[in-house]
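Project standup — Tuesday

K.O.: blocked on the structure for the chain from last sprint. Re-posting the sequence here as requested.
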Amino acid sequence: MPVISICLSPGLQRSVIIDTLIPGEVNRLKSVVIDVAGKGVNVCRVLQRLGIEALCLAQGGSNADEVMALARSEGLELRLIASSGTLRTCTSIIETSMATGRRVTELVEPSACVDEACVAALAEALLTLLPTASALVIAGSMAPGYPPGYQAHLADLARQTGVPVAIDQQGAALVDVLSMRPALVKINLAEFVATFLADRFRGGEHSGMLAQPALAAELTAAIADVSRGYATSFVLTRGANSIVLARDGQLRVVAVQPLAASEVVSPIGSGDSFLAGMLAQLLQTGATDWERLSLDDLADATTLATACAQSNARTARPGFLDESFARH
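H.V.: unblocked you, prediction finished:
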């Protein structure tokens, strides 16, 4: 029974390595690698590498043949619904000669608008797959052309079939999907605060109050309050800092042993790898009551999830695990 991973903004990821990027000058690259990417794609890729049956459902485009050829070459189970336009290419520029460690600059292209026929066909394809699915993942943003509430509609299809849903979204799209009672919401703390607590707290993932190693008591109390209003489990990552688990007003903070700066190549795809690792652990340990995952279950699953996220950070490619992880 496969995990179905929905990616509504797929594309290609061009990861380039350079000593130092000098704006306004000719820059010679040390290496370039191109992969199929998108949050839902990355989740699917890591699940497969962990031995979990998975497939990714996404829209295609005029360059779908190139995307599918790359997917086949790595054994990625990808199914594209026909659409016009061109799937975007995003670029990660990884500088290796920084004194404080590697620096990664991400260039994100806009997604092409999807066809109306693709919108209907993707939902129909999901309906066909759900009866044999073990879980549904909806990760990332939507390309233009998908109607408001579309991700909530897909989550509702899964709920009606009795398939647990895991979400990695933020903002209005997340609030919309929460009405469908997903089993699990995995986002970073900054995204959670921007979605639910923007009027009370400021800062981003790497700056201000949210980036402090120790969480302020007023912030943890606010997270617990938000969790009381939704029938789901929240897993909030904080980069190299601790992980916050919240459910029904109960909170748990799980410590993380961070990587050394010299070990990190690129963080792109690490959040997706974390979600894949958490799902893999829950599935392998036979989680049954998805509607009320305990904090103990979630805390146990963070071990594999963190290992996957850190393994991905050791690579230049999104949603890949490094060789040492594979050997382990």
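K.O.: great, moving the ticket to review. The mean pLDDT is 92. The two ends are 25 Å apart (CA to CA).
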